[in-house]
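Hello again,

I reread your note about wanting to compare the complex against the isolated chains. To keep things tidy I'm splitting this into two emails, and this first one only covers the full assembly. Below are the input lines as submitted, including protein chains and any nucleic acid or small-molecule components. They are followed by the predicted structure of everything together. The single-chain runs will come separately.
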Amino acid sequence: MTERVRCRYAQWPAVLGILLLPAPGSLLAQDTTAGKSVYVKWCAGCHGDGGAGDGAAAASMLPRPRNFTSGLYKIRTTASGQLPTDADLERAIDEGLPGSAMPGWKGRLSQSERRDVRAYIKTFSSFFADTSQHVVALKFSSPPGGASVAALKVGRQFYDSIGCRKCHGDQGRGDGPSAPTLKDDADFPIFAADLHQSWRFRGGGSVEDIYRRLRTGLDGTPMPSFADLIDQKFLTDEELWRLAQYVRSLSPAAPPEVRDVVHAPQIPGTVPVSPDDSAWTRVARSWFPLEGQVIHKSRWFAPAVAGVWVQALHDGKTLALRVSWDDRTESPDTAWLKFEQRILETVAGDDSAPGPKAEPWPDQLAVQFPRHLPQGMERPYFLMGATTDPVYQWRWTSRPRRAFAGLARGIERFDTLPGAPAGEATYEHGEWRLVLTRALATPDTANEVQLEAGRAIPMAFFAWDGSSGEHGSRMAVSTWYFLALDRPTPPGVFISPVLAMLVTLGLGLVVVRRAQRRGAARSGV
Amino acid sequence: MRKLGAVAATGMVLALGLAAWTRQPAPPAQGGGTISGKVKFTGAKPAMPKIDMTEEPKCKAKYQGVPTDETVVVNANGTLANVFVYVKSGLPASYTAPAPAGPVTLDQDGCRYHPHVLGIQVGQTLAIKNSDGILHNIKAKAKANRPFNISQPAVMTSTKTFDKPEVMVALECNVHGWMHASLGVLPHPFFGVSGGDGSFALKGLPPGTYTIEAWHEKYGTQTATVTVAGSETKTADFSFAAK
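Full-complex prediction:
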């Protein structure tokens, strides 16, 4: 008896060893210990020590950092409400979430660090340890061929029939009737995505990405899953692809490249003063991204205007600058006052002023130049100059609708000048289109920049969305860029080749004639 | 003698079997005790905000006047409607109740949820109906259960189930910010919602001492301890005061 017992016990270490070796628990513990140190160092500042999305920097952010404790993730390949797969989390960590403060960590953390931190963030929600959760990636079909005009039309039909426009607006700029009421699961205000900026989509801007978001929804946000509609035969899988293709077609084919210089070609006649003049369709547009003003109090980490599209033309006497940008509201708009209040309550200011109250601020745009064209690379301070070194600015406001010019001596001080650019603006479906025109040369050479062809003219942009509570230092800013007024092409460039061709042709004819005459004379003999 | 013994043994087994069978949980509605009562409301009846349905003419047309928010509904007899009353604790640990086969229906009609407050058993089907034929999304902001957020752009019905008890799951539509409802998910059938006369009844309770909770979306919760024996009916009244 004792012998048999001993035998049985003798096998235990081996059995235990086999059990322990692949035990996921022990491996997980290892990972999460390493993951925790990565998390504390790189993630906790925004996502908080306990993963509740409440780190030190969170209060000034919109959208807020993810709260990991609910196991709720926007960007997944799983059904609505389901946990994300490891691959989903990996993508978010590696690539980041465009259009938010979350950067991609692929180049910053090693593969094992990223894997460890992924294991660690899963410990914040008990759902990941719940074995009854079935975390299965949905099976996605491949896109049907060709996004032809007819296909996009089908997509547009479903854009209307399944109610995308309710939040995303008629033209997709996030200005639908329900947009001002939107909130996420934590009751923070949330914007319906601007579908004209696919490079800022959190889950990626490809047709495949958009299709997946339609299937899965964005958990924790108002964006639902549309997968049931296929099961219920409301639309087919192919039609959902068409919708994704239509949405994709609203944005440029490739993310805009940021270039340093806007070229203003010279045109014969006079420059167009209206933003909807057909002349603008023949001019290339350049994208200038804007960032929140976070240098001076009160800082602003949630700029509403992501960037401006700029076109320029001149006619030798006048410059026309066309600036267009997406803005959900034609401010002031009372329908958005409550939303503005929610933004102001959500995004912490850094000034000691009591909680800001929503006010009907207008939309504003500023174009900034130095007073004089610099000889070297020295330029005034980009953030609205300084007391001793002011900058020359054109400013435009939506209400009262006017354009004016002045000298900015820092953010706080603006002195209006008597001379002003002409401004003409249109607001339509979530987009401002503004044309500012001014004579290249003006009498006030001391204060107003003289726009010379062939020179690099420093230029910067500022934008305010009044309905997001933006005014004063709460604004979106750019760095210095350049405007270049192209010289007209000298006539010689066009005439010389023609002359050369004519001369060659003439000489050729002479040679041929002579040869013919000689031939005729010979045969005549 | 041996034959008699065999018969007796068989009879014993049968009797034991029968006894074991009858010890299975009884269908709740038949027999058992009842806890009923009313939910009173004291203080000034709060004015509920009007809902502007201009954006949805189809919904707007379903009302004579201007519809109001249903967060607080005080009945004509001074009682409070939409209070979720349920057995919070007191059932024997071994108590189990299978989910009823039939669904609980939540209807979206006139851009409002009907009912505004409802209960369901774990595993029971929630049928979410869109009678409006315009886009609604229905989002369940569940915490103990996994949430969901699905789209219903036409007249249609979708079904969902919940795995775990949860009081309450907030339901909302983001297309129509005013639309919200509350759902209580319980592992037993002993729950009810105070109606147009403020009354509720929890029927078919096994004998025992229960903690009954009354939940209201604005006024919070109250509890009462009630003991029921046999098929008697006990009263548990609640009273919420205006805030």
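For quick reference: Chain A has a mean pLDDT of 91.

B.
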